């Protein structure tokens, strides 16, 4: 299993709008791909960054499903985020493997 982590630093001026939009549009759009088995939204409490930092985490049961998401869906979905919030949000992603 792999965990796709999307860290997003949100400008405080759009925080409430971002929270609503991410829950009603962004997460559902990613979930519609049916490539992830679960997701969670977390707020980073000790971030050194200005603004408010969140982590969106999506779990895929194999790396291939993440690769399909990254190549076939992520660019368009991230474009929606950029169109909506522009430079009011900064994001970066990482991919992690579950260790047993």
From TrEMBL:
InterPro entries: DUF4286. It comes from Arcticibacter pallidicorallinus. This is Uncharacterized protein DUF4286.
């Amino acid at each position: 299993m792999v965990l796709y982590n999307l860290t997003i630093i949100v400008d405080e001026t759009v925080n409430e709008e971002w929270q609503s939009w991410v829950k009603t549009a962004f997460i559902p759009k990613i979930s519609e791909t049916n490539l992830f088995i679960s997701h969670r939204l977390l707020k980073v409490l000790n971030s050194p960054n200005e603004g408010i930092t969140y982590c969106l985490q999506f779990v895929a049961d194999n790396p291939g499903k993440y690769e399909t998401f990254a190549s076939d869906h992520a660019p368009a979905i991230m474009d929606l985020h950029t169109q909506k919030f522009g430079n009011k949000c900064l994001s970066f992603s990482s991919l992690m493997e579950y260790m047993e």
